[in-house]
């Protein structure tokens, strides 16, 4: 995978016969007390390697656009203005900066129902953000999110209950734990595989080295922990890459075994 362009809010990679663009929606600050040990208790102490912004953890919020030049899929959509947080909602600027016309996006794949992943389907002015949207893929356990603000999209929702092909090179794979419908998306090119996930990892400086650490908002912490272990082990295979919604922007990296955990090697320097 090779970086071919970047800016303040995007980074585009050549991935065999595909292009993968990381889109920076912004960041959100969360208290370290959201982290949990294997018994569900708040961590006593953070390792020195975990940086803080003030007293908080700073989580990047990323989405990913993948295209073969003809077909495309947008994985996650950011927060729009749903959280009323000026540090998020930048995905539309990121698409413009990357030269991607959102009016032509027909397929959106959502990792799970939380607002920083799905709210960008609706623009801040209340209109649909993707004018030619045909399908929204989301785990069956998370389809209840399509009410209220997201109600206009409901008729295009495709529930995912088992592995499902979105196109010739993208497969939706259920990965429950964080939410009942949490879903990862495997993208295959002629040179490797990319696994795009949502909230499998929240704090990359901690949870790769200590993958048993979980997050307070994991709906089922033991299931989320087991799923993270499974996915991390898969990612150590040759020519496998990860694209993470909360990895440091642009959030695309290799994973290798390291001690009792894993190490992360980003493919591009941080943006934002």
UniProtKB/TrEMBL annotation:
Residues 60-246 form the Metallo-beta-lactamase domain. The keyword Glycosyltransferase does not apply. Keywords: Hydrolase, Metal-binding, Zinc. The keyword Transport does not apply. InterPro entries: MBL_superfamily_lactonases, Metallo-B-lactamas, RibonucZ/Hydroxyglut_hydro. It comes from the Bacteria. It holds the Pfam family Lactamase_B. Belongs to the metallo-beta-lactamase superfamily. This is MBL fold metallo-hydrolase. It comes from Streptomyces orinoci (Streptoverticillium orinoci). The lineage of its organism: Bacteria, Bacillati, Actinomycetota, Actinomycetes, Kitasatosporales.
